[in-house]
Amino acid sequence: MSAPAATRARAPVALCGLDPRTYEPHRLHLPPRTYLETNCYADALIELVHARGGEPLAMLGFTLATDWDGDQFTYAKPPAADLRLLYGIDVHEMLPYRPLDEHIELALSQGRTLMLEADAWHLPDTAATSYRREHLKTTIVAEAIDPAAQRLRYLHNAGLFELEGEDYRGALALDADRAAGAMEPFCELVRFDAGPALRGAQLRECALSLAAEHLRRRPRRSPFEAWGQRLGEDLERLAGGTEGDYHAYAFVTVRMAGSTFELSAEHVDWLLGERGAAAAAHLRQIVETTKVLSFRLARRRPFDSAPAIAALTGAWEAATSELERALPCSS
């Protein structure tokens, strides 16, 4: 006689059956990159595509449209439409109405998964920063779950990790004090049946078209020039602030721009090879300049930022000009 449905439902279930002890991250998350992590959302998707045997370098054309949004650079988030075209992946918001581990269990059993905002307080992989120190929202992707053992394996930042027990209940907002009145974490369902997962020449051809489209959407003037017009005011505010204020500001400015355009350089290398070498070199100049500028900002004292802004603007303009020539119908 088969086991009751309730018993079967509590068995461990996995998406790819990966082991954190042997998992090898994508090369985007390995040295010698300057910024080994970009942001939690992009990094989780990079590893998800990689874990399923795809090439995440193909989806990075969106970074070419990065702009200055008034008080920060554009958050690097792969567009859902690009994921659908390149990998047949559909990502859309879902509404949790049961305990989150039940939703995860069901999704994984159907060959799907959930991306959810978790509190880094409960994520052991953030031991050097937030774990049991600071409450910060961050995006994780469920890879495997064992509800009976209260164990979750998840993709986060640059790898695959595992949590259990108290961290399991906290990350999935299962404890009574959370369930009694707190808002449910934001969740997205990830399906892999929205179309074919492209490979080889088809993947590159689609990525070329998307990169050209994103380049057409780039800002009409350098995003660094726009930032430079505000930077003096920001420096005055940082001078009267704390180290924490600096880190928050740096994350959405120098670090956001540097890590995003480093992804751009990696994308151009993969997509265009030698034809894109000059553009990739200019993009990496942006990366190096943001790294130097971050050290200047860390002092939290006013300084002449004009040379750095001019260097960033020059590199951006040179890179986009090269790409206009290299990408099909991008002008």
Structure description:
The protein has 331 residues and is α+β, with helices and mostly antiparallel strands. It has 2 domains: 5-70 and 78-191, Cathepsin B, Chain A; 200-326. Helices cover 46% and strands 12% of the residues. The chain is built from 12 helices and 7 strands. The chain has helices at residues 5-9, 40-51, 80-87, 100-109, 166-171, 176-179, 200-216, 223-239, 243-252, 254-272, 277-298, 306-326, and strands spanning 13-14, 90-94, 113-119, 137-146, 151-156, 159-164, 187-191. Strands 1, 2, 3, 4, 5, 6 and 7 form a 7-stranded antiparallel sheet that branches. Strand 4 (137-146) and strand 5 (151-156) form a beta hairpin. Mean pLDDT is 93; it is low at 1-8.
Topology of this protein?
Blueprint: H1 5-9, E1 13-14, H2 40-51, H3 80-87, E2 90-94, H4 100-109, E3 113-119, E4 137-146, E5 151-156, E6 159-164, H5 166-171, H6 176-179, E7 187-191, H7 200-216, H8 223-239, H9 243-252, H10 254-272, H11 277-298, H12 306-326
Antiparallel strand pairs: 1-4, 2-7, 3-4, 3-7, 4-5, 5-6
